[in-house]
Amino acid sequence: MLEPFGARLRAATDKLGPFCVGIDPHPAVLTDWRLPDDPTGLERFTMTCVEALAGQVGVVKPQSSFFERHGSAGIAVLEKAVLEFRSSGTLVLLDAKRGDIGSTMQGYADAYLDQTSPLAVDAITVHPFLGFGSVQPVIDTAQAQGAGVFVLALTSNPDGPEVQSARIGDGTVAGHVLASITAVNNTASRGSLGSIGAVVAANLGRLTEDVAIGGPLLAPGFGAQGGTAADLARLFGGVVEVVLPSSSRAVLQSGPTVAALRAAALRTNDDVVRALRR
């Protein structure tokens, strides 16, 4: 089994910095790079990202949907990229946002976190809005395989509060999710960084929930969505050391050359490190 994800994440970010680069082959990005919106263009885009970023950043976050839209050929490109990134020492956090129950959720866990799977990654995103217990198969598989899970809690989209701020008992849905993650990490991590993280957006303005969960915090909404490096330090305060700020456009808009992509990623990472004083 792999070393626990929390420990591997700590080592990767200590060595290469906390910035997580989103790998989002959106049709508009392919067009901007003068690539066709087909599997050939997808592969050229993705392998350019691999060449630019593998071994240069601690974590990358491919958006699964933009590979899935190209069918089996797109999934083959994703498999190839995952293998290249992981072989270089860069961790792969697949942004899949899966959510289901029982054996179906176990199927997702087997697909992405069982390390014998051709699509095995280091961590995935899931949503808990069928009840936190619905993500238990993924958490159990992650813990058995040394992988990680990031559970949606406070997201960057404007419609998120409709569900996440809804009242449940004496708190909110998001608060319940965060407390549930904390309980898992307190049981499993024994004082080290836990392997179960939360998605907490960088562009929220202020935090109304306790995000000290004992695990990492994936912070989308950074960069083009409005969150700045200074916002990270202000928003996350005493837990900045576990924050993974994530952006795709901040880097991908610098393409399509390998040198420009790499320079943009390293520059953004340096900005984050300075702001968070890591």
Q: What strand order characterises the main sheet?
A: 1-2-3-4-5-8-9-10
Coarse structural class: alpha/beta
Distance between the termini: 29 Å
Number of separate strands: 10
**Model regions low in confidence, pLDDT < 50 over at least 5 residues:** none
Please tell me about this protein's structure.
46% of the residues lie in helices and 16% in strands. The two termini are 29 Å apart. Helix 7 links the parallel strand 4 and strand 5 (148-154). The longest helix has 19 residues, at 258-276. An eight-stranded parallel beta barrel has the order 1-2-3-4-5-8-9-10, surrounded by seven helices. Helix 6 (102-112) runs parallel beside helix 7. It contains twelve helices and ten strands. By secondary structure, it is α/β, with parallel strands linked by helices. The chain has one domain: Aldolase class I (TIM Barrel). The chain has helices spanning 5-16, 27-32, 39-53, 64-68, 71-88, 102-112, 136-145, 161-164, 173-188, 229-236, 249-252, 258-276, and strands spanning 20-23, 59-62, 91-98, 123-126, 148-154, 167-168, 171-172, 196-200, 217-219, 243-247. It is globular.
